[in-house]
Write a structure and sequence with these properties.
It is a single chain. The protein is mainly beta. It is 0% helix and 59% strand. It has no helices and eleven strands. The chain has strands at 2-7, 10-12, 18-26, 30-39, 46-51, 57-59, 67-72, 77-82, 91-102, 107-112, 116-120. Strands 2, 4, 5, 6, 9, 10 and 11 form a seven-stranded mixed β-sheet that branches. A four-stranded antiparallel β-sheet has the order 1-3-8-7, with no helix packed on it. A hairpin with a 5-residue loop joins strand 5 and strand 6 (57-59). The chain is elongated, with a radius of gyration of 14 Å.
């Protein structure tokens, strides 16, 4: 069984910062692409940031220069550092990852975390 467990959400004032974490656990033999998505109230889920196993990153235009995605491969954990937060960043944030769950044969699957609420409000 594979799980992605997120933490770090909460209430923050505009202009503030938060760091989200997402750790993979269970029968994990490798973690490939890791991403953060978010779903604002009443809107569709959108891709916020992605990081490959080698460290290449990509971002949603509206968060570039404010958010930074990083990962610790030894800890099977991905982070999202969020700075200069605005009310438009309010959403449930989800972790997503491609995980190798068997050795032989080599098989991967995509998994989601349970989501963590981020609220930006004064």
């Amino acid at each position: 069984q594979v799980q992605l467990v997120e933490s770090g959400g909460g209430l923050v004032q505009p202009g503030g910062s938060l760091r989200l974490s997402c750790a993979a656990s269970g029968t994990v033999f490798g973690v490939n692409v890791m991403s953060w998505y978010r779903q604002p109230p009443g809107k569709q889920r959108e891709l916020v940031a992605t990081i490959t196993k080698g460290g290449s990153t990509d971002y949603l235009d509206s968060v570039k220069s404010r958010f930074t995605i990083s990962r610790d491969n030894d800890k099977k954990t991905v982070y999202l550092h969020m700075n200069s937060l605005t009310p438009e960043d309010t959403a449930v944030y989800y972790c997503n990852a491609e995980i190798q769950y068997t050795i032989l044969p080599f098989r991967t699957n995509w998994y989601w975390g349970q989501g963590t609420q981020v609220t930006v409000s004064s």
